[in-house]
Amino acid sequence: MDDEASQRSGLAAMVSAWAMTPETAAEGNDALLKLNDFPADVIVTDLNMPGLDGFGFLQRLRDSGEMPPTIVLTAFGNIETAVKTVHELGAYWFLEKPIQPATLKVLLERAASHAGLHAEKRNLERQLGYKGTLGELVGTSPQMQEIFALLQQAAPSKACVLVTGESGTGKELIARTVHALSPRRQGPFVAINCAAMPETLIESELFGHEKGSFTGASERRAGCFEVAQHGTLLLDEIGEMPMQTQAKLLRILEDSKVRRLGGKTEFEVDVRVVAATNKIPAEAVRDGHLREDLFYRLNVFHVHLPPLRDRKDDIQPIAGALIGDLNRKHECRVTEISADVMEALHRHNWPGNVRELRNVLERAVILAGEGSVEMSHLPAFLQANHAPAPEPAAAPAAADAGAGAPAAQPAEPDTIKFPVGTTVEDAEKGLILRTLEYTRNNKTRAAEILGISLKTLHNKLKEYGANKEYGIGA
Question: Does the pLDDT at position 438 exceed 90?
Fold first, then answer.
């Protein structure tokens, strides 16, 4: 790239003689257009040119995250500028004019080799992604492997991504992985929780505001779209965003233009949006929490993270990754998880998903300090979950309270059998009381296993007349 035609043609002829394929451009904008169709392994550029000069061109490449090795050409006396360009903008090397052909040939060959190694590294990272890790995501289950494959395809594009899944499954990690694998990786990653923002402030947080636009607006403030320029914006809990704000968001996604609150003009933004919700999108649309047109606009790539209880094959690799992270955080030296602990982790249903697993392991790592995580380092509810269930006869109060319910007989420590003909009402009653026996009257743990709230459990026990036997006020 050089604004002098004779320089361009002379260098192109030289490069062609070395069995390389050249493409030429007179300035930066021309080069950027040609790079869309010409995947250059190496770039040779002058710095001083009309239009988009070499500095601006390199800045654009660096910000895009797709910068091939670049050799900068400089006139005599501008060595300091060239060295600064190499260090600050990441150019590969610089050459002083007039160019010595032998030196240029060596540099081109080395730069091309460097580009090849970088491509191999990216390919290796991609292969590792399919084998259990992708960015900060970990998982060997078929479900996670499908997600990894989808992310590899979606990340390089500019399309919106909608991430769904229960709380604690790792929706923000999906967004961060999309950002890390995209050409925007050098740009900012900005996350906002729509459920945590008061309705009166969320538009100011998203779009920014001008000084005096509302009471308390003492100065101009940039919104998340401005802060995330050339990067990625995560809109977490999108179903909690006010409908009026959703309408404004839809227009921004369509036009790529934002107007600050109190502002008179719009300005363009280049932001990739990832939205996340723990609601089922179709239900959120039906219940009036999510605009249907916004849902369709966001749902270009849909990534659903299954709960941890449905992919227990991932518990061991996730636990291993978490142990390493927690060792660094707390300066511990835990090296393994005992077989008993791993069995207990697999038996648990993890209503809090990966977030709950992390909290459990953080406690265990701190208590263990070094060596192995043992059962004694786990919370009481996990130790109880691992212990053999008590026999039904050990809880006579429950038997009295369960009068009229079928005899819920365990075939195995954590299995219950009901005779054919048992009504749903009686089966529910027997299941609840047997689960309370299993947890030794730990109502919080029982509600967790049953998948109901603690309040619902209390109401059921009152309904059965078992409130006093289980320590609940009448």
Answer: no
Domain final residue, candidates 73, 91, 122 = 122
Residue 354 lies in a domain: yes
Mean pLDDT of 177-194: 93
The CA angle 376-377-381, to the nearest 5 degrees, is: 80
| HEC sequence for 11-63 | HHHHHHHCCCCCCCCCCHHHHHHHHCCCCCCCEEEECCCCCCCHHHHHHHHHH
| Residue 473: inside a domain | no
Tokens found for residue 446: 């029982």
Structurally, the chain folds into a number of domains equal to 4
Query: Beta-carbon neighbour count of residue 430 at 10 Å?
Result: 20
In sequence order, what are the residues at sequence separation of 6 or more whose Cβ sits closer than 8 angstroms to the Cβ of residue 274? 160, 161, 162, 163, 174, 175, 178, 179, 232, 233, 234, 235
DSSP secondary structure code for residue 208 in this structure: E
pLDDT of residue 41 exceeding 90, the answer is no
End-to-end CA distance of the chain: 84
Residue 73, H or E segment: strand 70-74
Q: Angle of helix 142-154 relative to helix 171-181, nearest 10 degrees?
A: 40
Residue 221 backbone dihedrals phi, psi, to 5 degrees: -135, 135
Cβ(231)–Cβ(187) under 8 Å? Answer: yes
- The letter for the amino acid at 372 is S
Closest of 50, 40, 98 to residue 74, by C-alpha: 98
Q: Domain containing 116 — which CATH number?
A: 3.40.50.2300
SS3 163: strand
**CATH number for 215:** 3.40.50.300
d(CA 46, CA 55): 9
Q: Are residues 209 and 249 in the same domain?
A: yes
Regarding whether 291 and 155 lie in a shared domain, the answer is: yes
pLDDT at residue 179 tops 60: yes
Do 292 and 359 reside in the same domain of the chain?
A: no
Helix (H, G, I), strand (E, B) or coil at 360: helix
**Cα angle at 78 between 74 and 84, to 5 degrees?**
90
140: number of CA atoms within 13 Å, CB side?
11
Residue 469 resides in a domain: no
Q: Does residue 98 have a cis bond before it (omega within 30 degrees)? A: yes
Using alpha carbons, select from 325, 367, 313, 351 the residue that is nearest to residue 447: 351
Q: How far apart are CA 232 and CA 273, in angstroms?
A: 6
Residues 373 and 270 reside in one and the same domain: no
DSSP letter (8 states) at residue 200: T
Quickly tell me which residue has 């233009």 as its tokens: 257
Tokens of 256: 């790529």
Furthest-apart CA pair in the chain: how many Å?
Answer: 100
Instruction: Please write the tens of the pLDDT for every residue from 408-424.
Output: 444 444 567 777 777 88
Residue 182 DSSP symbol: S
Q: What is the domain range of residue 450? A: 392-464
Residue type, 356: E
